[in-house]
Amino acid sequence: MKSTGVLMAALLTSGAALAQNNTQTSTSYGNNNRVTVEQTGRSNTAVARQNDAAVNGGSSSGNNNEVTQTQEGSQHLALTDQMGNRQQAVQVQRSDVSRGANGARIRQGSTAAGSDGNYASQSQGGFSHSATIEQLSGGNYATQNQSGRNAYATIFQSTGNNNRATQKQETSSAGTVTARQLGANNIASQQQSVSSGNETRGSVLQQGNNNTASQQQQQRSSGYMTASIEQLGNNNAATQLQIGTGYASSSAFILQTGNNNAATQTQNHSGSYGTVAASATQTGNNNAATQSQTDVTSVRATVTQNGNRNEATQTQVNTAFSGSTALQVGNNNTATQRQQNAGFVQASIEQEGNRNVATQNQQGQYHEAIVEQTGNRNTALQDQQVGGFASSPTRSGNYGSISQTADDSYARQVQAGNSNDARTYQGASGNSSNVLQTGDGNTTLVHQNH
Fold it and tell me: What is the Cα gyration radius of the chain?
């Protein structure tokens, strides 16, 4: 059955239109199409086209399509283009502010009319929102829910099937969430809260198949918060959680370019004046990265994995101006860094080889720990305690470094005190070293076949 302007009028007679400058347009082809529009307020526009050859790239088809558009308030705009079969689009817009300028657009289907079973839903609250959903293949699912003030959300699904994207914002000032799924069977979940702060953005790019991405950002009082996930391989999992309060700020970045990688980033920083950053880059397969930062002021954690089956864990608890870096180039390496109740501490692990193990534990202040492993099957352990200010010397904190350039070596450093210095160099295979420093101002230098 081909629908004309007469059908359009019939479809819209049950709808409600109030105030000035309203526009309602519907053009339908195919069968079992349904359009329902209700508009109140001023300057509203609702356009729904289903299976329109002129609009949808020169091809028309369709079964069981539905469009529901409800608008309240002022200066709204809602557009829906559908092509394919069993598609449904729902758009609801509200505004509690007279200046509210909401906009929404849903487009489902492809230029080849190869679409099946898509669903898209958008719900927006008050003032200055904009939401866009575009699905170009079959079996996709997308939903966006926005409320409050100044929010923007975009979902783009293309080339693949069975992608799922969910975005939710409860804003008061600022927002912005973007999800792009260019593969198949991907899942993206984004949820942002924000209250009386600016910024808070979220971005997910999935260019492979069977990937899972989850972002949750809160922020209370000033802030920014930016979370980004890019998955360019298959079967990857990425999770980002940022909460905030108290001068907020925060940034989280995950890049996965291989397969079966897992990355988790958690940043809490409740009430300690902001600036946190976490970055995880995984190139290879079956790598795992975990980063956790809590009551922070200006803390940074970085993990770079280039190889297979590497594992890196970074934990920073009540830190200030601290940082940890882990670089893994090779296979089956393990890096663990933990900073607890520590301030002005730095930890660095570089592993270039296979099956190396490095562990760093820091408690206190002004510590620095460095591990460099360029061979295979080496083990390095560092434990730094106490540290901080003391009457003599004026500035305290322990320094430890371990360098292993061969295979199958073992090095351990334990520093309990202030201003201790331990350096271990192992240049041949099968070396073993154990350094224990207690008290203040000790210096230990170990050279083994170096």
Answer: 28
How many domains does the chain fold into?
A: 3
Decide which of 132, 162, 192 is a domain's last residue.
162
> Among residues 132, 69, 79, 74, which one has the least CA distance to residue 99?
74
DSSP state, 42?
A: B
State phi, psi for 6 to the nearest 5 degrees: -65, -45
Among residues 259, 253, 255, 301, which one has the least CA distance to residue 276? 301
Q: Quote the pTM value.
A: 0.82
Backbone angles phi, psi at 237, to 5 degrees: -130, 130
- 405 backbone φψ class: left, alpha, beta (φ>0; ψ -120 to 50): alpha
**Cα(401)–Cα(371) distance, rounded to whole angstroms?**
6
Query: Tens digits of per-residue pLDDT, 116-158?
Result: 667 887 777 777 777 777 877 666 777 777 766 667 777 777 7
Domain of residue 97: give its range: 1-162
pLDDT exceeds cutoff 70 at 99: no
